[in-house]
Amino acid sequence: MSQPALQRVAVVTGGIGGLGTEICRQLAQAGRKVVAVDLAARDERIAAFRQELASFDGAITFEAADVSDFDSCQQLTTRIEQQHGSVDILVNAAGITRDASLRKMSPQQWHELMRVNLDGVFNMCRNVVEGMTARGFGRIVNISSVNGQTGQFGQTNYSAAKAGVHGFSMALARETARKGVTVNTVSPGYCDTPMVAAVSAEIRQQIIADIPVGRLGTPADIARAVSFLGADDAGYITGANLPVNGGYFMSF
Ligand code: NAD
User: Fold this and answer.
1) From the CA of 79, how far away is ligand 1's center (Å)?
2) 187 in helix, strand or coil?
3) Distance (Å, rounded) from C-alpha 83 to C-alpha 78?
4) Which residue ranges make up each domain of the chain?
5) Which residue, 87, 161, 204, 229, is the most exposed by fewest CB within 10 angstroms?
6) What top-level class would CATH report for the domain 9-242?
7) What is the pLDDT of residues 215-246, one digit of tens each?
8) Known catalytic membership, residue 158
């Protein structure tokens, strides 16, 4: 992979999460200046994140913002531009679940999830895309999910938002393609992270039995795909979805 001529600034939302932390690490290893963005309220995790990635010596920093809040994202973008430079790479990995079968799902569970998982993608992209197109370079990678591709019991909200993320990405890819900005999604399958650890041991075993590769995905598996799509020389891949699911759901 060719080294970028200048140090690009990469922003990773959900940056202190199970997948986000490893995405930050791999982007920093690829020579990016990384800003991890997450909720301010997660004090303990923020401290642990700083310790885990201390060896990167300032190449990874933390900024607090709520992606569900447009103004918070606008202020975040201004702060990052002042402190680190223009945003060249945006990875939208912030996400939540609010599982319930539709008969039992409250409007609050629906709206809370949409505000983070779908509005969050709009709020961040809307604030950085103009700068990217003006400078003629940008890489946007939105984290979707295999459950957005297949639908999942108890996840009408999550599946709708994640399918929506890919529709959004394809539309934005068309709007920015001539300006050097690519927009893609990565759709992880089931990964060994706190989100999946919350599932009962019995269901976990069932899930693993259905994965052709025979194991859960690792954060490194997902970060590899993000780093690939975020590379300077990945400019001819846009509007694509890259599934990283161990063969759990195969399609073309
Ligand atoms: P995680 O819960 O470990 O990380 C998500 C992060 O998003 C957390 O750090 C959380 O604090 C942050 N976040 C939540 N709401 C936020 C907000 N309003 N503003 C800013 N940050 C906010 O989950 P993860 O496993 O790392 O998942 C990362 C992404 O990958 C999510 O979008 C998730 O839907 C998707 N995904 C995960 C899996 C999996 O198996 N773990 C599978 C498919 C897709």
Assistant:
1) 23
2) strand
3) 9
4) 9-242
5) 204
6) alpha beta
7) 999 999 999 999 999 999 999 999 999 999 99
8) yes
